[in-house]
Specification:
The mean pLDDT is 95. The strands form 4 sheets. The protein has a 5-stranded mixed β-sheet. The protein has a 3-stranded antiparallel β-sheet with strand order 1-3-2. By secondary structure, it is of the alpha+beta class. The chain is built from 13 helices and 13 strands. Among the domains are: 18-185, no CATH class; 282-361, no CATH class. The radius of gyration is 21 Å and the shape is globular. Strand 10 and strand 11 form a beta hairpin.
Length: 367
């Protein structure tokens, strides 16, 4: 049996959050099966939090050099992955992207066949990268009776698209323009990629985990049969609640008493999005603190002793970067010291041009 604390420490180790890793950025992205990169730049903090001596500019160059890409993958969300990984991941998760997109936009393109939408989108993006607004407008010239935005979104589902630089490059801005991945990388996707590979890669980064956890992360269904085929190659545990947990036999599972440092987690970090049950890192109720689907707010959290212990916001105004931390419980003196130390370094990374820095630690708000 794995206790909650044992599960927590194993997970943090896989996520490079027990100690900063010496991995390169491509190595870390491969190990993590990418970072969710829904926002333009906050995911850089996810790399800084995990990697020793990290600076963001070389990662921007990796995007420009086409060694890493940002594209829709797991759960139809934008991920930063290596060029090699995107080519086998995209065909495997395409059914999820198509299903989710059709549910919202499908009825607005009734009467159009997939093949003709895909062919027209590829034709239009042979000329130059397109924003979805541009793509939809051009597609509407051919099919004026259909909603432009819906046609563009269906094209996103049918064609593996890369969001091209300078969008996402540290210190730069640019429109969210897209090209087919084959055009951008000069290589086709891999139609022979296996679900077994996907499950094993997931466990290396997010295990130990249940079948439901793998499905939650990927958006795919019916993975129990895939795990069953792998069972002889996996270690099997039980959680405190009796659930069956699968893992790679040689994967690290540290002592539950291993110290876990304070870590600042960005708003779309996969840490909180990759399990059906995330009590391994979060036991607080976000809704009680105003973070609901209705408000549309994405909490940025602080790990304290390995678990979500606070939320944070960083605002730069008139040259002063102010970091506000809202704990969910009383912090020990050592935890406060560790928090201030990590906070100073995080502000220096996230707001390098700020002339002054201020850290506000609010009173605890249990819930």
């Amino acid at each position: 049996m794995l206790t909650l604390r044992a599960l927590n420490r194993a997970y943090l180790d896989r996520q490079l959050l027990l100690r900063r890793s010496e991995m390169t950025v491509p190595q870390a992205l491969e190990h993590l099966v990418g970072l969710q990169a829904q926002s333009t730049h906050t995911w850089y903090l996810g790399l800084w939090t995990r990697l020793a001596d990290y600076t963001p500019e070389p990662t921007g160059q990796l995007l420009t050099d086409r060694r890493v890409v940002r594209m829709a993958l797991m759960r139809s969300t934008i991920h930063l992955v290596t060029a090699d990984d995107c080519l086998w991941l995209r065909p495997l998760v395409e059914p999820v992207i198509e299903r989710m997109t059709k549910a919202v936009f499908g009825r607005n393109v009734a009467g159009l066949e997939r093949a003709e939408i895909e062919a027209e989108a590829r034709r239009l993006m042979r000329e130059e990268p397109r924003t979805f607004s541009e793509l939809g407008r051009r597609m509407a010239e051919r099919w004026p009776g259909h909603d432009p935005a819906s046609m563009a979104q269906m094209a996103r589902a049918y064609v593996p698209l890369v969001q091209v630089p300078p969008r996402g490059v540290w210190g730069r801005t640019g429109q969210a323009a897209h090209l087919p991945v084959e055009t951008w990388l000069g290589r086709p996707v891999d139609p022979g990629a296996s679900l077994e590979t996907l499950v094993l890669r997931y466990l290396a980064a997010f295990g130990p985990a249940t079948v439901r956890d793998v499905q939650h992360w990927s958006g795919l269904t019916r993975l129990a049969e895939v795990v069953d085929r792998l069972r002889s190659r996996l270690a099997v545990f039980r959680g405190e609640d009796g659930r069956e947990l699968f893992d790679l036999p040689d994967a690290p599972r540290p002592d539950p008493d291993t110290p876990a440092p304070v870590r600042f987690i960005y708003d779309f970090d996969n840490l909180l999005r990759s399990h059906a049950d995330i009590t391994r890192v979060k036991t607080v109720d976000f809704a009680a603190h105003g973070f609901t689907a209705r408000t549309g707010q994405e909490p940025q959290v602080v790990l304290v002793d390995g678990f979500v212990g606070a939320t944070w916001t960083l605002v730069t105004k008139r040259g002063t970067a102010t970091l506000t931390v809202r704990p969910f419980r009383e912090l020990t003196a050592t935890q406060r010291d560790d928090l201030y130390s990590e906070a100073e370094a995080m502000i220096a990374f996230s707001s390098p041009k700020a002339k002054a820095r201020d850290i506000v630690l609010e009173p605890p708000t249990p819930g």
